[in-house]
Amino acid sequence: MWKRLGWIAMAAFSLLLSGCGYNTMQAQDEQVKASWAEVLNQYQRRADLVPNLVAAVKGFAQQEKDILLGVTEARARVGSVQATPELVNDSAGMQKFIQAQGEMTSALSRLLVVSENYPQLKSDANFRDLQAQLEGTENRITVARNRYIQSVQAYNVSIRQFPGNLTAMAFGYKEKASFSVENEAAIAKPPVVDFSTQPAPAK
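Structure (tokenized):
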């Protein structure tokens, strides 16, 4: 009899947990982690392209030292941010990550704009391949980032709505950090480059 009562109690407890949103939060939390891992994967793919891009441009436009240095320094700043899975629970850390990635985006945009001044560089097969890889990676970053934003939004809504908010409070679930609209605009906006400050194309 006691065994039967134990099974009934466990069944009732399971129903209680599912009704209070606990299982949903578990699933959404895992989705956030998976989405974040893909964001990091795509940003790492971009960072891995940087040394080859810098080397390719340097081969045709060594005088663009400031631009090349800017890209290299931006990559170093990206590497200095500890982009761990726990970053989704750290708003301040997420802001540093977003800022570093925004600087990387701007630096790469400047590099590609400057490359327009060098026909030989533009026609180089290696550079064209690297540029295509970068463009593809940027597209994958956008997709991964949007999926992460949606995952975080679903999770954050669950822990704020009743009765999920009570469950979240009981189990210590807190809102996760995300990219804001302002962050998205800053990351996606290419820098304004004044060609009058650029040196004449190499002959």
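The radius of gyration is 23 Å. The chain has eight helices and no strands.
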